[in-house]
Description:
By secondary structure, the chain is of the alpha/beta class. The chain is 46% helix and 16% strand.
Amino acid sequence: MKKQRVIGIFDSGVGGLTVMKEILEQLLDVRIVYFGDTARVPYGNRSREELIRFGEEIVTFLIGQGAEVIVVACNTSSAMALPVLRERFDIPMIGMVEPGARLAVEKTIAGRIALIATETTVRSKAYSSGVSRALAKGVLPNFSVIREAWQQGEQAIALVKAQGCPLFVPLIEAGLANSAEARGIAKTYLAPIQAAGVDTLILGCTHYPFLEPVIREILGEDVLIVDPALAVVKELEILLQEMDERERSGPIGLAFGAVLGTNHWRTRYFVSGDPGLFRQVGNTLLQEPIDLVEQVILGE
Ligand code: DGL
């Protein structure tokens, strides 16, 4: 029997559900323990120290729930806390920024990439470093004209505009993703992106895919919208294969390690705030039922 891995996912709130959804759709052999830090949302203007402390508490909790891999389904935590969390915990972790930046480089057609994200993610410059790192590692656009220009030494691919969107997360957490307010605010936030003449837009906050229809309506079909979650799933798939292979070649029995209990749960949800609100907003956003949500108080 193939081992069903338990993946621990966390975010400040419902945003990580966009990542969870992709994982569940594409990787049929995994189970997910989800933690939404809804008592402390938004993360978008938290300090590095806070984000590290919250991350430590949550990763400890998820490991206690049987997680074998952590997906930091929050760009803000990925940008600010992930390097420290990787040093402090002996568990594989995948963040949003590196896979997201790589995907944008692969997808761009004109080499002009934009980012929308929380203020903290924008200030961290993690995505511009991610784009430069991807290029330095040899990741190139799939589109031949821009790829050849880059290969001939032109600085043809860059993150040219980064826009903080602080009101998006509170709106989405309040269940207002599909509202006139969200549309009005999105128009304001996206105006500088439109003015910058970009061809690719990274959704650099895991909440934002819930606004993709609104963003698409405003930007039209000429801008390619990149959701880093798609690249995160690929990275996770490769990591799980490597873990399986390592265990198969390790001491006998490890590859058939314990499957948690005999109950056949696929997802478990924990939040630090109001479980009812998370269930209600999550149900609407995912358009499928989230049954049980348990409240856990961390850091006290
Ligand atoms: N969804 C998160 C992110 O990807 C956090 C947003 C927030 O809480 O401000 O950045």
